[in-house]
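The authors assume throughout that readers already know how a fold can be written as discrete tokens. What matters is that the chain and its backbone geometry are given together, residue for residue. A single example would do more here than another paragraph of explanation. For illustration, here is how one protein appears when written out as sequence plus structure tokens.
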Amino acid sequence: MATLQQKVAEKFLAKLKEGKDLDAEKIEQLRKLLADSRQAKADDFIKIFTAPAGGDVK
């Protein structure tokens, strides 16, 4: 049975997929971050949301 946190994360990711604000790669990175057993930190989210779409900063 899924925990409350897992249910909230899945619903959140589903809403992100419905919108077109984030690409699939960033959503997948978020899914992995939220599924990780350790506590996510603000820096982890910053890395995802500040990286340009489709790759590394050049």
User: Anything to note?
Assistant: The mean pLDDT is 85.
